[in-house]
Every structure is written in C-alpha cells, then in structure tokens.
Amino acid sequence: MLSAKLESALNNQMNSELYSANLYLSISAYFESENLRGFAHWMRIQHQEEISHAMRLFTYINDRNGRAVVQAIDQPPVEFESVQAAMDMVLEQEKRVTGMIEDLYREAQSHKDYATHVLLEWFIQEQVEEEKSAIEIIEDLKLIGGDGTGLLILDARMAERSGD
C-alpha cells in the first residue's frame, strides 16, 4: 500500500507525463506548420511514449490500492521561435521530469517502498534515453546551423523513427 505522500507524488508525476505528452503534440503541430514532417512524426511518437508513461503510473497507483487522480493539465505553448528552440524546450522538459523522478525515488527510499523503487528504476533508465535523444538532435541542429539542406536531411532521418 502506498503512503499518502508517495501516492500524491506519483499522481503529480503521472500528470507531468501528460503535460509532456501535450507539449510534444503541440511541438508536432508546429513542425507540421513548418513542413518538417519528419520532426512532426518524431514528436507524435514522443507524445505516445509520454501517454504510455502516464498510463504505467496510473496502473501502478491503482494496483497498489491507491487512487490515480487526473488533474487539469496546463496548456503547452503553441508558438516556437525555431526548430532549435522547440527542441531546447523538449530537453528542458525531460530534465524537469528526470528531477521529479529522482525526487520520487528518494521519497520511496524514505518509506522503504521497494516495489516503487522497481517501478522508478525503469523510469530512471527511460529518462537517460529521453535526454540522450533530445541532446543528439540538438547537437545535430547546432552542426547544421542555418543550412536548409542539412535540416531536410535531419528531417528525413527523424521520419524513420518507429513507434516501438
């Protein structure tokens, strides 16, 4: 059984994952408007991943005899200065989520909640992957600079991402 404090923190994490999903869908729409269909595709898959993360938490909270509580989700931005700025926002969101998961892990430790440790270890590994992916794209964008051809090549590579 979850402590009330840990249940609340897990619910906050679930809702943060839902915000991330909405942010990434909003960024996808921006990329579509910029004719960057590969980037848009990549962000839609990212959106689906965040939904699956939220559902993993939803199920876990309920399985531990808690109550998953879906809260109001803030509206994400809809305008972005550039592709680089949008991807910088992705990395910042992932770093924020990583910090929240680390806080959750410490809270689970303080309650000696080993089942939650196991859950959060999966999330910790996932965050390593999430941040790495965003950093690689940002680094590629820096290398490209303002070169349109390079951006189109990267866009084509982003379109190759599968949803599994």
The profile of the biggest β sheet is:
none
Low-confidence stretches: none
Assign the CATH architecture.
Up-down Bundle
H/E order of the elements? HHHHH
Q: Assign an overall shape.
A: elongated
Number of domains: 1
Distance between the termini: 32 Å
Beta percentage is under 5%
Task: List the SSEs and their pairings.
Blueprint: H1 4-33, H2 37-63, H3 83-110, H4 114-144, H5 148-158
Helix pairs in contact: 1-2, 1-3, 2-5, 3-4
What does this structure look like?
- This protein has helices spanning 4-33, 37-63, 83-110, 114-144, 148-158.
- It contains five helices and no strands.
- The chain is elongated.
- The longest helix is centred in the C-terminal third of the chain and has 31 residues, at 114-144.
- The mean pLDDT is 96.
- 77% of the residues lie in helices and 0% in strands.
- The chain has 164 residues and is mainly alpha-helical.
- It has a single domain, classed as Ferritin, core subunit, four-helix bundle (Ferritin, Up-down Bundle), CATH 1.20.1260.
- 30% of the residues are buried.
Summarize, please:
With 164 residues, the chain is mainly alpha-helical.
